[in-house]
Automatic annotation (TrEMBL):
Major acute phase reactant. Apolipoprotein of the HDL complex. It comes from the Eukaryota. Residues 1-18 form the signal peptide. Residues 101-130 are annotated as: Disordered. GO terms for cellular component: high-density lipoprotein particle. This is Serum amyloid A protein. The keyword Methyltransferase does not apply. It comes from Piliocolobus tephrosceles. It holds the Pfam family SAA. GO terms for biological process: acute-phase response. Belongs to the SAA family.
Amino acid sequence: MRLFTGIVFCSLVMGVTSENWYSFFKEAVQGVGDLGRAYWNVLTSSNQNSNRYFYAQGNYDAAQRGPGGVWAAKLISSTRVYLQRFLDYYLYGNSSTVLEDSKSNEKAEEWGRSGKDPDRFRPDGMPKNY
């Protein structure tokens, strides 16, 4: 737990070097909201293969907030990836399909954080309200 707290604190300090603390935290909280909305859309969407689009969209929206949003997106995305890999390993074993899916989700998240258009991952037939 101490190691995790130290890593979070160090990454926070590294991300706030040129920005003031208030705007950084405001952007981070707004970025968390963007990612939360994206993950909620993943859970409620009935479209197949739409998770990559929502991961890219959530990271894109968070990154548009500024450095705090980028920091929150990286932290939440990497935590989600590590937890998902841990659970997948114990539920499904060492499956190449699961690893491939995880890698493509990471690629979509990085694509969105870089500011590129997340519509690249939008599946055909997806409603416009997303």
